[in-house]
Specification:
Elements lengths: L2 E6 L4 E8 L2 E2 L3 E4 L11 H22 L9 E7 L3 H18 L3 E5 H7 L12 E6 L4 E8 L2 E7 L5 H11 L6 H9 L22 H17 L3 H4 L1 H27 L3 E5 L6 H14 L2 E3 L10 H12 L18
Parallel strand pairs: 1-5, 5-6, 7-10, 10-11
Antiparallel strand pairs: 1-2, 2-3, 2-4, 7-8, 8-9
């Protein structure tokens, strides 16, 4: 039986989790509300908050799991990608703790951990499966052959879909983070009211920079005619924007599943919490005979539960790191 402590500090959440013999016992997240007033994450402030939060968060999860630090068999931590200062807090803490206890370090790729979050709860996908990973910084379609073999089938060539959601929300005057706000407003809007141009990319790749420009020019044009246009049509605008973005995601996902002849389909990353995406995925599953896997909401956004389960899976393969491993803000997939 292996007991793994997982630590996540890639952006603005300080999170810790304990995984015992492949079962995630807890998942504690300290959110940083300080960034809301700036409309986005401020790296220096994020680092300071991580310093403040990491010790009490780790102490809490160990106490909640009723284990002592000496019971730990390994420490998994996010090596990258992410904000350098934020990654340094988590990696430095993990290295010091592992060195003092004489136990292995398990460096984790943040985006791969989002995929492996599907192995926290039942039902779990079987290999191979297709996973659409969607977040503020990444949009990828992956073929997952095993925990250490993930093949990129397609990815964004510019902005991620989560960034497109947040920037569209900013154009609508919505507070940060804007993606969840658009999702909420879209529930009461008409998704067919306004049309926005979808960017076309070859093969299975994405591009989301064009739709942001399309939204910007559309709003400028309408606001010249009516200064209250956004306020009077907010729900319909949110619904129309969301429909366009989700349509772009689903077209390539359907194509990937067809080309790979795989019917086990998963989604991961922060945008996988979007209710519209979940609904569309389930609708396509009924049409195409897919078996769909969607993580629990708490494992969609950045969290240590996914780091701990990833640590467990890599611990079984003796995939350990060393004290010489430095954080990699642009860690290659």
């Amino acid at each position: 039986m292996a007991i793994i402590l997982g630590i996540e500090s890639s952006c603005d959440e300080t999170s810790a989790s304990v995984c015992i013999d492949g079962k995630v016992i807890n998942n504690e997240i300290a959110n940083q509300t300080i960034h809301e007033q700036y409309g986005g994450v401020v790296p220096e402030l994020a680092s300071r908050e991580h310093q403040r939060n990491i010790v009490p968060v780790v102490e809490h999860v160990l106490s909640h799991a009723d284990i002592n630090v000496n019971d730990l068999d390994g420490i998994a931590y996010t090596r990258g990608p992410g904000l350098l200062g934020a990654l340094l807090i988590g990696s430095s803490f993990s290295k010091a703790m592992a060195a003092s206890l004489g136990i292995p370090l398990i460096p984790i790729h943040h985006m791969k951990a989002h995929v492996l979050a599907h192995f926290i709860d039942d039902p779990k996908p079987s290999y191979p499966f297709i996973c659409l990973t969607v977040s503020g910084g990444h949009t990828q379609i992956l073929r997952i052959n095993n925990p250490t073999e993930m093949i990129i089938l397609g990815q964004t060539q510019d902005d991620a879909v989560g960034e497109a959601f947040d920037k569209a929300a900013k154009l609508l005057g919505l507070p940060y983070p804007g993606g969840p706000m658009i999702d909420k407003l879209a529930m009461s809007g008409n998704p067919n009211r306004f049309q926005f141009a979808e960017s076309e990319m070859p093969e299975l790749d994405y591009s989301f920079s064009g739709i942001k420009t399309s939204i910007l020019y559309f709003l400028r044009k309408e606001l010249k005619k009516n200064e209250q246009f956004i306020k009077e049509n907010l729900n319909d605008l949110a619904a129309s924007i969301q429909k366009t973005l989700l349509s772009m995601l689903m077209k390539k996902l359907i194509l990937a599943a067809s080309q790979e002849k795989i019917k086990q389909i998963a989604i991961a990353g922060g945008v996988s919490a979007n209710s519209g995406l979940r609904q569309q995925l389930n609708e396509e599953a009924l049409k195409r005979g897919w078996e769909v896997f969607i993580p629990d909401f708490q494992y969609c956004t950045d969290n240590a539960g996914m780091i701990a389960i990833s640590g467990h899976l890599l611990f079984e393969q003796d995939a350990f790191g060393s004290l010489a491993d430095s954080p990699l803000p642009r860690m290659p997939f």
